[in-house]
Amino acid sequence: MTNSLNVAKFGGTSVGNYSAIKNCARIVINNPNTRIMVVSAASGVTNHLVTLANASLSNDEISDIVEKIRVIEFSILNELKYKQEVEDKLFTLLDNVNALARHEEINFRDDLKDELLSLGERMSSLLVAAVLREMDCNAVNFDIRKTMRTDSVFTAASPDLSEVGRLSQQLIAPIIQDSVIVTQGFVGADENGQTTTLGRGGSDFTAALLAEALSAETCEIWTDVIGVYTTDPRITDKARPLPELSFEEAAEMATFGAKVLHPATIEPALRKNVKVFVGSSKEPENGGTWIVKDCESRPSCRAVTRRRDQVLVTVKTPKMMYAQGFLEKVFSIIAKHKLSVDLITTSEIAISFTLDNPPNTISQKMNQDTLEELSSICEVSVDQDLDVVTVVGNNMHSEAGVSSRIFSAISDFNLRMICFGANVHNLSFVVAENDSDNIVRALHSSLFE
Questions:
Q1: Are 279 and 287 in contact (CB under 8 A)?
Q2: Superfamily designation of domain 302-448
Q3: For a surface tag, which of 144, 186, 300, 375 has the fewest beta carbons within 10 Å of its beta carbon?
Q4: Is the CA virtual torsion 111, 112, 118, 122 positive or negative?
Q5: CA–CA distance, 125 with 147 (Å, rounded to integer)
Q6: DSSP letter for each residue of 185-221
Q7: How many of the other CB atoms lie within 10 Å of CB of 443?
Q8: Domain 6-223: assigned CATH number
Q9: What does the pLDDT look like over 247-303, one tens digit per residue?
């Protein structure tokens, strides 16, 4: 495959209505190197599908939510010049939504949940491809389940990289010589052909995996903001977009709360040195952020991020003193429940670490199961209502004056835990969620204004 290939991903707000989709279509048509377009579900649809998959609903409540989804999809369909071309397929997908939502086991079987959740992206790609064809672009709606081979861990599947690469070369590479492929983000299939999903935000990951599999030169992530900012612009209006980031900086920012990027996106790009661009589909002329291997500048402080919904778990036992194997037991339990720890500190008889704990999610349930098991081997305490605020940069541990500047900016706040990253790119604080807005503003003011 030619190295000039570009893979472009468009988020839910970018494909939320007919006029927004036309904006995306123009972006694709204006770049002849864009041969693959990865789309999310139309804005609002995934939330409705998540409710249908996880909530105990009456028949009337199900009908009401299915109708809301139908309204979103039909608002796009009815704008099409040749809607009869895709009408029947859309009806079939909506019928599948209705049938799965009423399945008696939908709340208890993750395979059924994934089948239902995939339908948002499948409807979206059908309609987006139709809009492109109306604009004289030879667009093909491609079922990503043919190539995105995953394991069978439903709702959080992991891709089989060698199979994704082999199947992409076999099934996608020949088509993109003459056509633009419009396909689904977030969705995959296991070796038995059962539909899987890559977890929330997995559309970015899909785009990066396809870029890696086809040795693309670039991967564009089109969203509703102009690139990656120095901090969340909803916290302070002084935040500004960054022209460039290194892969390492972007990975740290994504891991510690920058919502513009899915954390897993950076790994495939880094493996094949695929340049990643983040920009706004509403304002493509305003540029965005390039994420590259080698940045022109590597400042000691690049950005401030916040990760919400954290719990701080402390496990303690007198047996830990001079004992071997206790850490191994603790982390084998965490690994068994497929949880990842971001921050950790230790003392002679205790370990404290953070876990993601978004309400009403599978990770919250796994956290509860993990804590119960840990309680069988040690004393466990949990602090809730916490956020992690992180300063991301370069060589932070060795640049003179950086740490003192950071700590003086937030000297008025209580810090529950302080963690210098094992690499040179981050310094993180666990703080009360009620303080995190003000801490981010104070750090941003001191470091970037």
A1: yes
A2: VC0802-like (3.30.2130.10)
A3: 375
A4: positive
A5: 16
A6: SSEEE-TT--EEE--TTHHHHHHHHHHHHTT-SEEEE
A7: 25
A8: 3.40.1160.10
A9: 989 988 988 888 777 778 889 999 999 999 999 999 999 999 999 988 888 899 999
